[in-house]
Amino acid sequence: MKSLVEIVNNLSSFWSSKGLYQLFSYDIEKGASTCNPEVIHQIISTRLDFFVLDKCRRAKDALLSSSNDRCYTHHQFEVILNTKNRSNLLDLYEESLVYLGIELEKSLLEYLKNDWEHATLQAYGKGWEVTLNGLEITQVTYFRQIAGKNVDNVIEFAYGIERIAMVLNNTLDIKQLTWDKNLSYSSLNLGRESEMENLNQSLIDSKTREKFIDALYSEIDILKNKIGILISTGRTYMALESLNRISENINQLDLVNALDETRKKKIILEIKSLVDSLSKKL
Length: 282
Known about the structure:
By secondary structure, the protein is α+β, with helices and mostly antiparallel strands.
């Protein structure tokens, strides 16, 4: 069985051979590697060609016991390229899949239109969801805006490591995967997954639930004030970290069915104003 560590090492080897730099993970609450503050800064400023492995969190995907291909914490291998420097980018991407051992001539590889947007970070792009034999394995995005700044000539390949491992090992169940050598994916990750998946059940007591929801909304208010202070003092990395934490709180409110849409719209509008100020500092 091909482990997740082997897949990450192979992708690292492939993209390193193409001249890309390697960055290290920025482990904060984030739904996608694109939200990594280091990634955002590099896209906006130096325009390096680079790759990074990130741990990502999506509260509404905490469904591992009932859905074998969705989990709260997953891993993305993010590749960022300046399109001015290279041609035939999709051919390069497909070459990376072959390097992993995927036999494209025997597989159904499809590019399905799927534009990307992140309201909290004021970011969006045009692109595709890439599926292999019906399973999504990568998001390809040409960025148009990130953190309120207009962007061009930058493409992202966001590989879903768990999904690619499922394809390579011919399984539809993440729990059957190997993390590294004889270490199973389940033994390392199921405890955390169960904790998030059972959040709703643990909040069945109305008073506990109310306290939890109030705590999430209170933290959002605190983080908004903190972001304003950080922006005013030029702390852009820290401001982006706090923006990601707001997104995670919103996702957890959604998970426990406590997301007030009117209040959410108000929060997003307030954050948009903050991101507009942040973009001037980037």
